[in-house]
Design brief:
heterodimer, A: alpha+beta, Phenylalanyl-tRNA Synthetase, Chain B, domain 1, OB fold (Dihydrolipoamide Acetyltransferase, E2P), Phenylalanyl-tRNA Synthetase, Chain B, domain 3, 6 domains, seven-stranded mixed β-sheet, five-stranded antiparallel β-sheet, 20 helices, 39 strands, B: alpha+beta, BirA Bifunctional Protein, domain 2, 2 domains, three-stranded antiparallel β-sheet, about 20% strand
Chain lengths: ~800, ~350
């Protein structure tokens, strides 16, 4: 919301620096996002008069002008053709830095010095709408009445400062100069100036010219006035200046007045071309389904019952609160007009504005809310300007169709509760002074604070609201110097983490130690993710976003792998190598589709590795190390994950049969789908399940007095015999003496025979009661070898 | 004999002195103290010495032997030291060569920031909880005093799944869940992802928030302000400056926004903070009594306050990350810088 400083000064005598005012507004709840200096590019430009002109002796197209700029006479060389002796023009002198980026310094034109330059409207940042001649392709010729030597910013009223203020949705009243002026008056404790609403009429009766019929509940108030004998000219410069500063294009007196009121009062208005109102009637009604209207932006829109229009006896002429139809507005030759000053339902205006994609100064204000009492002042103020500017003759009477009764609101609050909310006691005199300067009509008797908020403060409803008004004006600085600590008067609570977060953090730290990098991916992805991952189970039933940003972000993820594969692909594509990634995130599994209840949100850890020399067993080791600190008892079975390599993947199955994770090599087809030409190893764990397990407990045996013995054996077996089979056979053959077994080598060669492999094991034996003799050890090893031979046809490797 | 012994001592000392390795030293030892050594033979032939001289010669011979042994020992120590020093000198390696083994990876900066923030909160008595990211309109909006068509809904364009179910736009939905499930007094903090229909150079459709809520008797704005002061100092250092701006959130009243020293420029003013030296870190406020009541908490007895930072921006500025999009791009060239 752009608010002009000069405009504000009409209502309150404020004279502080713009920076100070901006800071004060910001710390009082009206965040100033930018302070715009209209004159930023107008310094060193003055009103000058060309007193003499002669041709440049060495250049046909150049004129040497002697120019009076008040304090001195300067010489300007120009090629402009629209200047003449006696012309009053803007003259930029050394140091000027014009709107189009031109910087002025004295220049020599073929032996003749030029002290500066005449300016066009464009160079001053203005156009034909702002001032006559502002848009010509040449120099801006100023009226003769201008004071020679005056700064151009003062002469053209381009000396304003504009605050771009972020108005919060609870303060629609401050989408206006008057609203902000009221705030300034409260902040600085300055009185508001009187506002002149007076005007003269020419007699007659408005009802003889126009009738208004409101046929919808979405228009709580519609006011109208009638003005005839219009003289449409440019509005005065001071009015144009205000509009221009706030980014509104000046058009003519009547349109400018409506826009001026919009800025000043926050009340959108419309000025109808009277002769185009069929039947001299204004009908406010819901649109009919399929009804079409061509509007000022050049488009035609089809409406339905949810939209609202202003119609005459034949046709819709305005989309209510949003935009006027063609021919609905005053034109240069208009002689009679009807002013509309109405309140439309904010929801209705917002929905229509969104639906047709048209946002105007009017729709923006209606969407934020216009109070039922606002039009009264606004319409009177508009008529005041019509009268003051001699723009036309105002016919007696104002039509007012109001279906809502406004009544004075008041309530009583407890001052001690307000103190408690604030945690600081503001002096009672100051309380009343602040509240009254905000127009809340406050009185205090004992603990009872009685307030009567004005109509434009519907947001003031309870003690908390009053507390906010007090502290934002009193200043939050009070807390900086306040003694005491937080929670002095409240309970002690013991902090704690969610157990899953603690568990996940442990896993994360462990993975980082293993050389992994944590990634974060969007939990939304393309609808093709499952297909690319060959997924054909219930994870295919994905939740779709109804209003997605793009196809790439249209689906809520049911699989983690997709994102990590894309991360790997991206990293490979930019030349990054040795990728070890993990992510902790959620998948979202619907209970039914379309969604009727909330889905299950399952927290997962996913791991992906793409690195030369990496293999299944390295990943298995990582997964094993992550799981060993949990109390999980699990077994590994061949994985059923469709996107993993069937022969090189495992599912992790808990004792209760639940699949709590899986790991393995990514399926070659999937790699192809992702256009990845390196092997990728992937693992995933269900952290919801794992963190819900009871804590791992330990029960430590006494450490043996006797030394452990190690013996190595290598046996040749068929390829399909597994390590697990051999290891458990060794264990059972060793009986009580068993103290562990580790596979330390796998060897294949032609000499072993086809389909054969050699497995080398280190067997750890321990007798808890005595030192073992060589004979005892040999006996055990022989038993092991016999057992392996009997069960798996294992031969001791020579 | 006395002269002979003194000569032997002198000779031995001089030869020991000349030795430059253990081997030649040993030869000297053998020469004097070996079985056939000069000194040994004198000692062995003691009985040939006349008795009146024997005692004196014996003492002298033993003293010479001790002195020779000591000289040998001392020299030996020196030579061993030298030999060790020499061999270690030969073993010298290039200490600038890289370490061997797995190189540590890195946590995402967001996780590090989250953990820091959670630690601070837990120390102050907050319990960390998490909840649904896909939630009903009621928890995300209605119960937070944002009815349908409320202007505040324009502030955050939502991603809907059905008319009634959406991806939460704010972690504030957890305020409602907490108030329904927990009995006051409680202090909770909820980190999590939020979703908006917004994707451009400075916005991610998915970003991270924290929601902290305190409900108790006798808590108010002062507690909030004092607490935020502590948190900001812990997060950004003791010298952090803060500015409070009144603001508006439907579920808090009074509502404030907290600006703190811009961590990108340390308050000097930069493009990120638009030259103000301050950037917004928290939204906060006293819980609107309507919101307490809607979730079944007696607003006459209890009050509360809530605050929530947007995490991503703070992560950006504290790590000087030039572009918010880096946070989700997972580029090793980015991640490696955060080890």
């Amino acid at each position: 919301m752009k608010i002009s400083y000069n405009f504000l000064k009409d209502f309150v005598d404020i004279n502080v620096s713009p920076e100070e005012l901006a800071e004060k507004l910001s710390t009082s709840g009206f965040e100033v996002e930018e302070v715009i200096y209209q004159n930023e590019h107008l310094h060193d430009v003055y009103v000058g008069k060309i007193t003499k002109m002669e041709k440049h002796k060495d250049a046909d197209k150049l004129q040497v002008c002697t120019v009076d700029v008040g304090s001195k006479t300067v010489q300007i060389i120009t090629s402009a053709t629209n200047v003449f002796e006696g012309a009053v023009v803007p003259v930029s002198l050394e140091g000027a830095d014009l709107c189009n980026g031109v910087k002025i310094k004295p220049t020599n034109f073929r032996g003749v010095e030029s002290d500066g330059m005449f300016c066009s409207g464009e160079e001053l940042g203005i156009d034909e709408n702002y001032i006559e001649g502002g848009g010509v392709n040449g120099i801006l010729i100023l009226p003769n009445s201008m004071k020679i030597g005056e700064k151009i910013e003062d002469a053209l009223l381009l000396n304003d400062i504009v605050f771009d203020i972020n108005i919060t949705p609870n303060r629609p009243d401050c989408n206006s100069v008057i609203g902000i002026a009221r705030e300034i008056s409260a902040i600085y404790n300055l009185p508001m100036k009187e506002i002149d609403y007076s005007f003269n009429t020419c007699g007659e009766n408005v009802n003889d010219y126009i009738s208004v019929d409101v046929k919808t509940k979405k228009c709580p108030r519609y006011m109208a006035a009638y003005v005839k004998d219009l003289k449409l000219t440019r509005s005065p410069l001071w009015m144009r200046s205000r509009l221009f500063a706030c980014g509104i294009k000046p058009i003519n007196t009547i349109v400018d007045i409506t826009n001026y009121i919009l800025l000043e009062q926050g009340q959108p208005m419309h000025a109808f071309e009277y002769k185009h109102l069929s039947g001299k009637k204004i009908i406010v009604r819901d649109a009919k389904k399929g009804e079409k209207i061509a509007v000022l932006n050049g488009n035609t829109y089809e409406l339905d019952e949810n939209d609202m229009v202003i119609a005459d006896s034949e046709k819709p002429v305005v989309i209510a609160g949003v935009i006027g139809g063609v021919n609905s507005c005053v034109e240069p030759n208009t002689t009679e007009t009807v002013f509309e000053c109405a309140v439309f339902d904010l929801k209705s205006v917002r929905l229509t504005s969104r639906k047709i994609g048209v946002s105007t100064d009017s729709s923006l204000r209606y969407s934020k809310g216009v109070y039922v009492d606002t039009p009264i002042c606004a319409l009177k103020r508009a008529l005041h300007f019509v009268d003051k500017l001699g723009a036309g003759k105002i016919v007696n009477g104002i039509i007012d169709k109001c279906s809502v009764k406004t009544k004075k609101r008041s309530f009583t609050a407890s001052m001690s509760r307000i103190d408690r909310i604030l945690g600081v006691k503001i002096e009672r005199d100051r309380v009343l002074q602040i509240l009254n300067s905000l127009g809340l009509n406050a009185t205090l008797s004992g603990d009872n604070l009685h307030v009567e908020p004005p109509y434009y403060r519907e947001d003031i409803e309870c003690e908390n609201d009053i507390a906010e008004e007090l502290i934002r004006i009193y200043g939050y600085d009070v807390y900086n110097n306040l003694d005491g600590e937080a929670f002095e008067n409240s309970s002690v609570t013991i902090g704690a983490y969610e157990p899953r977060l603690v568990f996940e953090n442990n896993l994360k730290n462990e993975l980082v130690d293993f050389g992994f990098y944590e990634t974060l991916n969007y939990s939304l992805y393309s609808s093709t993710a499952c297909e690319k991952l060959l997924i054909n189970d219930e994870r295919k039933n994905v939740i779709k976003i109804a209003n997605p940003i793009s196809e790439e972000l249209s689906t809520v993820r049911t699989v983690m792998a997709h994102a990590l594969l894309l991360d790997i692909k991206f990293n490979l594509s930019v030349g990054n190598k040795d990728l070890r990634f993990f992510e902790v995130g959620r998948i979202y599994l619907p209970k039914s589709l379309p969604l009727t209840e909330l889905p299950v949100e399952n927290n997962r850890l996913s791991i992906a590795v793409c690195e030369d020399g990496y293999n299944f067993f390295m990943l298995k080791n990582v997964v094993g190390n992550l799981l060993i600190t949990t109390s999980l008892n699990y077994k590994l079975v061949r994985s059923t994950e469709p996107y993993l390599h069937n022969g090189m993947s495992a599912d992790i199955i808990a004792e209760d049969g639940k699949k709590v994770g899986y790991f393995g090599k990514i399926h070659p087809k999937v790699l192809k789908n992702y256009d990845i030409s390196h092997d990728v190893y992937y693992a995933e764990l269900d952290t919801d399940y794992l963190s819900s397990l009871k804590e791992k407990t330990y029960s430590v045996k006494e450490v043996s007095k006797f030394a452990e013995v190690e013996r190595d054996i290598a046996v040749v077996v068929d390829e399909d015999v597994t390590n697990e089979q051999i290891s458990s056979a060794i264990k059972s053959a060793c009986g009580k003496l068993f103290n562990g077994v580790t596979l330390f080598d796998v060897y294949r060669s032609d000499s072993l025979g086809e389909n054969k492999k050699s497995l080398a094991y280190k067997i750890h034996l321990l007798n808890e009661e005595k030192t073992m003799t060589a004979d005892e050890i040999n006996a055990v090893i022989n038993k092991v070898l016999k057992s392996l031979e009997y069960r798996y046809k294992a031969k001791l490797r020579a | 004999m006395k002269e002979k012994l003194e000569q032997i001592l002198k000779n031995a000392q001089s030869e020991i002195e000349k030795c430059d390795d253990v081997k030649s030293l040993d030869e000297v030892r053998v020469k004097y103290l070996g079985k056939q050594g000069e000194l040994t033979s004198i000692l062995r032939n003691m009985k040939e010495i006349p008795p009146e001289e024997r005692k004196m010669v014996g003492m002298l011979a033993n003293s010479v032997r001790e002195q020779v042994e000591k000289a040998l020992g001392d020299k030996n120590s020196i030579l061993e030291e030298e030999a060790l020093a020499e061999s270690m000198e030969k073993e010298k390696i290039d200490i600038t060569m890289p370490g061997i083994g797995v190189k540590r990876g890195a946590l995402h900066p967001l996780t590090r920031f989250n953990n820091k923030f959670m630690d601070i909160c837990v120390e102050m008595g907050f319990t960390v909880i998490q909840g649904p990211e896909i939630d009903t309109d009621y928890y995300n909006f209605e119960a937070l005093n944002v009815p349908k068509n409320h202007p505040a809904r324009d502030m955050q364009d939502s991603l809907y799944i059905t008319d009634n179910i959406l991806l939460r736009t704010q972690t504030s939905n957890m305020q409602v869940h907490a108030m329904e499930e927990l009995k006051p007094p409680f202090k909770i903090v909820c980190p999590g992802r939020v979703y908006r229909n917004d994707d451009d150079s400075s916005h991610s459709p998915i970003f991270n928030q924290f929601e902290a809520l305190v409900v108790d008797e006798n808590v108010g704005l002062k507690d909030l302000m004092k607490m935020i002061d502590i948190i900001l100092k812990r997060l950004f250092g003791e010298n952090v400056k803060m500015r409070v701006r009144p603001s508006y959130f439907p579920f808090t009243e009074p509502s404030i926004e907290i600006d703190a020293t811009c961590q990108m420029c340390q308050g000097k003013g930069c493009s990120l903070c638009k030259g103000t030296g301050l950037s917004e870190v928290f939204g906060a406020g006293v819980v609107n009594p309507k919101v307490l009541e809607m979730s079944g908490i007696d607003s006459k007895k209890y009050s509360g306050f809530a605050f929530g930072p947007g995490i991503d921006r703070s992560v950006m500025v504290t790590n000087k990350i030039p572009n918010i999009k880096y946070l989700f791009r997972n580029d090793m060239r980015f991640l490696k810088q955060l080890r």
